[in-house]
Amino acid sequence: MAFMDCHFYSEALGVSVSMYVVVPQITQSQIGMDSKIHGKKHPTLYLLHGLSDDHTIWLRRTSIERYASGRGIAVVMPAVNRSFYTDMAYGYKYWTFVSEELPALARSFFPLAEERELNYVAGLSMGGYGAMKLALTHPDRFAAAASLSGALDLGRFAREQVRNDDFKLIYGDLSRIEGSENDLFHLADQLAANNAETPQLYQCCGTEDFLYEDNVRFREHLRKLSIELTYEEEPGEHEWGYWDRKIQKVLQWLPLPANL
């Protein structure tokens, strides 16, 4: 794999931003790497960070580069600060950045595939919310989405935070989250009502995680709507040992086309 530490200007945000990108590379003599390339343009996983982290965290806390190499998948890891992947009421347009500008710029910089069936999104905690939001809002763009310990019941999560100044800056009136374009339950309702092609969805959470009940509620909501979901739970907390194990499962689960 080739690793790029990429710094570029965002028109959506009006500032320079950062992302890490790893891209498949075939090597003959590199020790300890199972390298694979599917074609001239690479299947791509957009991998999202959590509330207290940045674009560097997945590479620092896991072996994502090594895991992705065996699957021949490029991984794009953007920084979005504490934005909850949202166009903020009092701040920056991070949803516009991550949903529109980022994929276009990444494809202009690197040989990344544009086809729906070759694009995937995943994330942990806040990033799990962002992954599901992207997939449910734009099911035509992503073949699969995965949430690891995601903050999926955003209305409850924002209301019950002891320090919720971040959420007031992001959303303004917190009572307006539920039923809005930022509410995953509402987005799932819309997807089901429109009979749109649903991305394959994966969700996992540790049973000792403080977000476990939120994940159970979201799972049950998707089941009520007959939206297919791969769901896994096991003993585990909100920590990197769990996420390192689960991102390996996600990479194996991703629906790479058989003809690649």
UniProtKB/TrEMBL annotation:
Q: InterPro entries from the entry? A: AB_hydrolase_fold (IPR029058), Esterase-like (IPR000801), Mycobacterial_A85_antigen (IPR050583)
Please, which domain of life does this record's source organism belong to?
Bacteria
Annotated protein name in UniProt = Esterase family protein
Q: Which GO terms describe its molecular function?
A: acyltransferase activity, transferring groups other than amino-acyl groups
Do you know which Pfam families this protein is assigned to? Esterase
